[in-house]
Amino acid sequence: MSTALQWFKSTYSGSEGGECLEVAATPQHIHIRDSKHTPEDAPTLQVTPATWTAFTKFAAR
């Protein structure tokens, strides 16, 4: 049985939409998509949780 991903965007994103990233997590992957696309046609990038953690630590510097 497949469970739909629950997508979240940053609390820093404005309510106007259109220019933010959304993320969803499973135990195996962090899924990333651009909110400009509709959910049905949005290409997604999948990375491991370890890769996501390293990225967010780097970006927070």
UniProtKB/TrEMBL annotation:
This is DUF397 domain-containing protein. It comes from the Bacteria. InterPro entries: DUF397. Residues 5-58 form the DUF397 domain.
